[in-house]
């Protein structure tokens, strides 16, 4: 009996090709809600929320029981299907492959693991053919709406992957019409545009391909105010040259210049909702060989407990297996799958900081970085991969112990050479490859080096023997396979034998680890002397490097960059260096096992200190150039170039600190402070404090370091500490060209501004405007004019700030600097907000797009916040509620409570406008309890309290008020989500409240 459950279209069940009548709409919804989580428990409350949301029927549990009873009766004859109820909830048990949604995902996983593009394209086609229409089109509950939206995103992502595979397989003629239609449906998707251009040019339609690019560029400029990204420009250049190679990875337009904020997701996202665009898992650039049984074991363990640790010797493939499992499982985590690589950390290094950077989370006011990570993850459902834990075992275990206890929706997949010994940990030992899989891996990697190589007959036996003697260790096998570029497999085996590896290994006297080290040593000894020197020096880098870094730190005396590139290419060919990405600037990485070997050789040669100091000096020089370039028109290029080197910057600072190299330490913290503060987090401010401890007497950069440290405290909402740090400057201002955020006097003025003394802040900034004019410093002038406008808006005299705001725009235009332009547009929007809200909104949106284009999360956030507040007051309240919810999430991730409290004030105003007086009163008390001003003055508070039938004392006790900061955010988010769903422009639900 063939059974098919259908969710990808209208909900339905077919048995032996005959349609089963499964009842009316709500009963079908109950079945669908269980099928989405097939084999996993769903509580009664969850089912009620999914099916009825906030409008459940009288005695909803009785209605739910009736529907389940009817479904059991209707499906009683379906073999292998059971609907049961246990302590954890209701479970529908059946073969997942009988459900089209899960079959779709299984086919996609197979496609992504396929070795040949033609096979992958065929599997993608089979998966996409399962879609019969829009899922749950007639179901209106928030849970199903959220699932419908996420499934649409998943389908689009799979379609894009299918297009790449089909193009690689030569099916360009079949794709032109289909991709053109998809681009009409998604007119701003640059990846689709690139695929269409390649399909057109490969079909002999070069003029059409060029026209597609012109149209796409026009739409991007008109809709987003942005030019095509580097990848699409590369496709354009290929078309012009008549070269239609593989389509490069195209940056999502939303990351470059986001459109207005979308409505937030439902409060109870579906557990199985895909996260195709959420997370930071690396793109797989080589095939995954074997280990299907290991994948099944790991996946099963991930579904049974909160922490799974893959253990095994170095080089056995733990990291590759972890990433593969994460890729296959990420679709069941609504908040995505995130990889945190711990290898760049020193022994017992800052694991919590590394996790925060990977998750793009900043430290919160009053919390340690570890507490911040826990609080951020507490209400989220995601998969966190912690790679290479062995050298930070105790620190990682402490963090994971807290995560397991306090973040029930988070599952951790760790790799380590030994167990973490955390309660609830499930260990999955990773064994070497089987003999057959070892042969497949050697063959695959060897053919990458020499596509014409035949490994049958005598060669096959040699390869099998090499794999066996290398103990099935993937890294050792790949190193050996890389040598077939210059020798036959038999010669590879002979060379290994001369190194005594095979002979000793055959007697069983070498452990797996010794076999690997011997293979690495053999590969190393076959290098030329210049290659050996470069390889060992490259071990100083953490988190990867580019060609400029390799040459600047490791290049030999008299070598040119081309000389270094030739040596680096040789190391890549021999699998000792891996190409991590290939965009505008390629980056490279030395795998941790190889890096440890290189570091040991460097120490043996007595060169580790010299190379470490060269590394620190190089990145200090890069930081100095970055600091200057962030104030120019090339800000975006420098941000994209430098952010991948964050781990190297940390390592450089630690080396400077260990050497008490004051100059290098201060150059690093002052030059990079703006990049890191506004794009990564506030960890750098603590480094600035540590650098100040090195200063003995005066130093030209001391005041800027004080400013950087003080600004970090201000961002964290620690005003007393910020004031104390800033006052250490003694009123001295740093020199021209200092990072925008590193002026101690500005921090003191901002503390005054946020504590209610806008007059004092205005006096400071008016004086600084005069100083900036005298110094002919346009970047500083934009900053100070911006703040004059802000102070005037706070003082409720925005018209008196109009001249400063307009001048800031004029000056910013002369700089071409995106952050300066963002600030200026924001300032003008602020003074226009009350008199001309429509023009103000346009300015705020422009400011947000400019900030996002250079990954400036702080100005992006405040522009989004003012735009949301303006929409809440002057436009549709539902749109305002949705936008304010997005801003809540933004500051929640950034960790800036100074801005989050301000955002909560805007939320209170909107709730009063909507008539949600009880919630407004609760949030009012949260603000007051935190020492923050509330938008409800005495008269407004009394009116709101009266509306809920409560006096001051009773209103203060409403629902446990006053809430903590996170509690206030949670309440605000839930209420905003509800109001965002309640109506849209012109809806009757809100018409009476405007």
Please tell me about this protein's structure:
With 994 residues, the protein is mainly alpha-helical. The protein has 7 domains: 1-169, Arc Repressor Mutant, subunit A; 292-429, P-loop containing nucleotide triphosphate hydrolases (Rossmann fold, 3-Layer(aba) Sandwich); 435-525; 529-606, Arc Repressor Mutant, subunit A; 608-742, Alpha Horseshoe (Serine Threonine Protein Phosphatase 5, Tetratricopeptide repeat); 756-858, Serine Threonine Protein Phosphatase 5, Tetratricopeptide repeat, CATH 1.25.40; 876-991, no CATH class. Helix 40 (857-874) runs parallel beside helix 42. The longest helix has 27 residues, at 142-168. The chain is globular, with a radius of gyration of 30 Å. It starts with a strand and ends with a helix.
Short description:
By secondary structure, the protein is mainly alpha-helical. The protein has seven domains: 1-169, Winged helix-like DNA-binding domain superfamily/Winged helix DNA-binding domain (Arc Repressor Mutant, subunit A), CATH 1.10.10.10; 292-429, P-loop containing nucleotide triphosphate hydrolases (Rossmann fold), CATH 3.40.50.300; 435-525; 529-606, Arc Repressor Mutant, subunit A (Orthogonal Bundle), CATH 1.10.10.10; 608-742, Alpha Horseshoe (Serine Threonine Protein Phosphatase 5, Tetratricopeptide repeat); 756-858, Serine Threonine Protein Phosphatase 5, Tetratricopeptide repeat, CATH 1.25.40; 876-991, no CATH class.
């Amino acid at each position: 009996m063939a059974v098919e459950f259908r969710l990808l279209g209208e909900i339905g069940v077919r048995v032996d090709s005959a349609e089963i009548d499964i009842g009316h709409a709500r009963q079908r919804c109950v079945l669908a809600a269980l099928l989405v989580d097939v084999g996993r428990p769903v509580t009664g409350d969850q089912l009620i929320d999914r099916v009825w949301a906030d409008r459940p029927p009288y005695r909803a549990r009785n209605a739910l029981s009736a529907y389940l009873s009817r479904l059991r009766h209707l499906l009683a004859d379906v073999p292998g299907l059971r609907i049961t109820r246990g302590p954890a909830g209701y479970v529908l048990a059946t073969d997942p492959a009988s459900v089209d949604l899960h079959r779709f995902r299984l086919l996609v996983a197979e496609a992504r693991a396929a070795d040949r593009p033609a096979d992958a394209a065929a599997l993608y086609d089979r998966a996409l053919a399962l879609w019969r229409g829009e899922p749950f089109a007639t179901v209106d509950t928030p849970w199903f709406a959220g699932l419908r939206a996420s499934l649409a995103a998943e389908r689009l992502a799979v379609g894009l992957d299918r297009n790449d595979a089909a193009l690689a397989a030569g099916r360009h003629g079949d794709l032109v019409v289909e991709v053109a239609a998809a681009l009409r449906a998604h007119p701003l998707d640059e990846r689709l545009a690139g695929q269409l251009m390649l399909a057109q040019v490969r079909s002999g339609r070069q003029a059409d391909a060029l026209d597609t690019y012109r149209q796409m560029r026009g739409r991007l400029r008109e809709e987003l105010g942005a030019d095509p990204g580097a990848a699409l420009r590369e496709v354009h250049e290929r078309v012009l040259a008549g070269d239609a190679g593989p389509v490069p990875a195209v940056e999502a337009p939303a990351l470059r210049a986001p459109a207005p904020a979308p409505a937030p997701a439902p409060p109870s996202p579906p557990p199985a909702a895909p996260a195709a665009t959420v997370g930071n898992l690396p793109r797989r650039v080589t095939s995954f060989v074997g280990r299907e049984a290991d994948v099944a074991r790991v996946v099963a363990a991930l579904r049974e407990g909160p922490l799974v640790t893959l253990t095994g010797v170095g080089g056995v493939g733990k990291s590759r297996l972890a990433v593969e499992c994460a890729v296959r499982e990420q679709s069941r985590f609504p908040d995505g799958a995130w990889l945190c690589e711990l290898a760049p950390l020193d022994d017992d290094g800052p694991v919590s900081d590394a996790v925060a950077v990977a998750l793009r989370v900043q430290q919160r006011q009053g919390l340690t970085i570890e507490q911040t990570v826990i609080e951020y993850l507490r209400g989220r459902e995601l998969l966190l991969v912690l790679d290479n834990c062995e050298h930070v075992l105790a620190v990682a275990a402490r963090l994971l112990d807290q995560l397991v206890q306090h973040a029930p929706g988070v599952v951790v997949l760790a790799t380590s050479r030994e167990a973490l010994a955390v309660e609830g940990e499930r260990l999955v030992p990773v064994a070497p490859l089987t003999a057959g899989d070892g042969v497949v891996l050697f063959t695959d990697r060897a053919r990458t080096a020499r596509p014409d190589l035949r490994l049958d007959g005598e060669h096959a036996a040699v390869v099998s023997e090499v794999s066996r003697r290398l103990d099935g260790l993937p890294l050792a096998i790949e190193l050996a396979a890389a040598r077939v570029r210059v020798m036959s497999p038999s010669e590879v085996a002979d060379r290994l034998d001369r190194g005594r590896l095979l002979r000793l290994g055959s007697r069983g006297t070498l452990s797996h680890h010794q076999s690997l080290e011997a293979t690495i040593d053999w590969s190393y000894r076959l290098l030329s002397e210049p290659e050996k020197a470069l390889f060992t020096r490259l071990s100083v880098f953490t988190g990867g490097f580019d060609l400029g870094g390799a040459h600047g730190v490791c290049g030999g005396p008299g070598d040119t960059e081309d000389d270094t590139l030739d040596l680096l290419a040789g190391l890549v060919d021999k699998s000792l260096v891996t190409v991590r990405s290939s965009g505008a600037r390629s980056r490279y990485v030395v795998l941790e096992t190889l890096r440890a070997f290189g570091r040991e050789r460097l120490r043996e040669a007595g060169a580790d200190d010299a190379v470490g100091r060269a590394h620190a000096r190089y990145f200090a020089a890069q930081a100095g150039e970055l600091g200057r370039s962030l104030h120019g028109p090339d800000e975006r290029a420098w941000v994209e170039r430098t952010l991948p080197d964050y781990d190297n910057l940390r390592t450089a600072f630690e080396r400077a600190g260990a050497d008490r190299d004051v100059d290098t330490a201060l150059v690093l913290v002052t030059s990079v402070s703006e990049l890191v503060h506004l794009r990564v987090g506030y960890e750098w401010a603590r480094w600035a404090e540590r650098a100040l401890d090195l200063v003995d007497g005066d130093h030209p950069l001391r005041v800027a370091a004080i400013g950087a440290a003080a600004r970090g405290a201000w961002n964290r909402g620690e005003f007393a500490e910020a004031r104390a740090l800033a006052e250490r400057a003694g009123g001295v201002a740093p020199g021209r060209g200092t990072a925008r955020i590193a002026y101690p006097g500005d921090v003191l003025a901002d503390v005054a501004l946020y504590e209610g003394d806008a007059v004092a802040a205005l006096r400071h900034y008016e004086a600084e405007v005069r100083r900036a004019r005298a110094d002919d410093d346009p970047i500083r002038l934009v900053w100070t004019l911006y703040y004059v406008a802000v102070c005037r808006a706070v003082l409720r005299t925005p018209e008196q700030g109009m001249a400063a705001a307009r001048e800031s725009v004029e000056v910013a235009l002369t700089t071409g600097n995106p952050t300066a332009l963002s600030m200026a547009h924001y300032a003008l929007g602020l003074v226009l907000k009350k008199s001309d809200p429509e023009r103000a909104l346009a300015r705020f949106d422009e400011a947000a797009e400019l900030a996002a284009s250079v990954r400036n999360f702080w100005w992006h956030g405040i522009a989004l916040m003012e735009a949301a507040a303006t929409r809440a007051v002057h436009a549709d309240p539902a749109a305002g509620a949705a936008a304010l919810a997005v801003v809540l999430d933004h500051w929640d991730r950034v960790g800036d409570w100074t801005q989050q409290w301000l955002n909560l004030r805007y939320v209170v105003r909107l709730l009063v406008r909507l008539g949600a007086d009880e919630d407004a009163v609760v949030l009012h008390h949260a603000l007051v309890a935190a020492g923050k001003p509330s938008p409800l003055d005495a008269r407004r508070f009394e009116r709101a309290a009266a509306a809920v039938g409560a006096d001051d004392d009773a209103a203060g006790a409403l629902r446990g008020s006053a809430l903590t900061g996170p509690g206030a955010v949670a309440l605000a988010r839930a209420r905003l989500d509800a109001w965002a769903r309640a109506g849209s422009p012109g809806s009757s639900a809100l018409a009476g409240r405007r």
